[in-house]
């Protein structure tokens, strides 16, 4: 167990280093004046001020020197200052991490619950039920999130006034964007879980359980579901990690604060410290989530505990 956690932590550190390095290389490789990125587009400065900024930020140093200085600051925990906002990056992100985590977790829980219910209702059924379920899941995955969000706002917020149209900080403001974000995720998870259930039902242990007189509901709920949850846990971990950095469309449609909107704005303005901090947060989230998924494997399948002992 300790060895597993240590391996995951070391792998996470490596992932964060690679992600940060690629971010640095990508933003430094974009053509343009780095001073303009610091001051903002269209800013007029004297040659003296320009020279001071170049010296202060080390833009006159070789790229390798800039990278090593920047990396040393990251290792020491200094995320720097936002070029455009003139604030410490930690202050910029402090109010954005909570709403994004809240939305991502709520959407994931909603999607998992919907996937479990739908998969249990459709697994092992006839061809017609399976075809209808597959069509519904494909439609859920294919619907653009921003379009679904606009439709939800039109009916549930503007016409029926059941939920607020914008903002964050309350349960009523969270329900609609979480459901909208969960719909395509639920489509994918339902397919994965149903395939896992049907694979488990075809295994020899399922025949043995049937021979003991256990009904189909107990067979699926008590035995097949446990086997299928391995693939569900894998996909859930990936989905939750991706939602931390990929909810920008939903946050934009519902005018919610969050990392997605901050990242989009920072990329547009080449605000390297903010972009790097968001990338590192997402990489750290993936690391923690992957560790939790590994621990969930051990809880789901006791055989894995013996292998890691």
TrEMBL record:
InterPro entries (UniProt xref): BPD_transp_1_N, MetI-like, MetI-like_sf
Database matches in SUPFAM superfamilies: MetI-like (SSF161098)
Tagged with keyword Membrane: yes
Gene Ontology CC: plasma membrane
UniProt keyword terms in alphabetical order: Cell membrane, Membrane, Transmembrane, Transmembrane helix, Transport
Transmembrane segments: 103-123, 135-158, 170-189, 232-254, 274-300
Pfam families on file: BPD_transp_1, BPD_transp_1_N
Mode of membrane association: Multi-pass membrane protein
UniProt domain ABC transmembrane type-1: residue ranges: 97-293
Main subcellular location: membrane
Localization (cell): Cell membrane
Molecular-function GO terms, alphabetical: dipeptide transmembrane transporter activity
Keyword Transmembrane helix among UniProt keywords: yes
Entry's family note: Belongs to the binding-protein-dependent transport system permease family.
Protein name (database record): ABC transporter permease
């Amino acid at each position: 167990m300790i060895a597993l956690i240590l391996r995951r932590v070391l792998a996470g550190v490596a992932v964060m280093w690679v992600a940060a390095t690629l971010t640095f290389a990508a933003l430094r490789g974009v053509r343009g004046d780095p001073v303009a990125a610091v001051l903002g587009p269209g800013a007029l400065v004297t040659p003296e001020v320009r020279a001071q900024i170049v010296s202060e930020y080390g833009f006159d140093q070789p790229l390798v020197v800039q990278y090593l200085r920047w990396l040393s600051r990251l290792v020491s925990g200094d995320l720097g200052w936002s070029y455009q906002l003139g604030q410490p990056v930690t202050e910029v992100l402090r109010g954005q991490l909570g709403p994004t985590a809240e939305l991502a977790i709520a959407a994931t829980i909603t999607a998992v619950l919907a996937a479990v219910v739908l998969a249990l209702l459709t697994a092992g059924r006839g061809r017609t039920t399976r075809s209808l379920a597959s069509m519904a899941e494909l439609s859920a995955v294919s619907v653009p999130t921003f379009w679904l969000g606009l439709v939800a706002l039109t009916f549930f917020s503007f016409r029926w006034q059941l939920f607020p149209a914008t903002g964050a900080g309350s349960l009523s403001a969270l329900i609609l964007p979480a459901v909208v974000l969960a719909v395509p995720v639920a489509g994918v998870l339902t397919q994965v879980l149903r395939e896992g259930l049907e694979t488990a039902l075809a295994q020899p242990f399922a025949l043995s359980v049937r021979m003991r007189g256990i009904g189909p509901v107990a067979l699926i709920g008590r035995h097949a579901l446990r086997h299928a949850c391995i693939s569900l846990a894998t996909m859930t971990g990936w989905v939750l990690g991706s939602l931390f950095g990929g909810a920008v469309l939903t946050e934009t449609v519902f005018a919610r604060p969050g990392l997605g909107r901050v990242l989009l704005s920072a990329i547009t303005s080449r605000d390297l410290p903010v972009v790097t901090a968001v990338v590192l947060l997402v990489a750290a989230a993936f690391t923690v989530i992957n560790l939790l998924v590994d621990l969930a494997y051990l809880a789901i399948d006791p055989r894995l505990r013996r292998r890691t002992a």
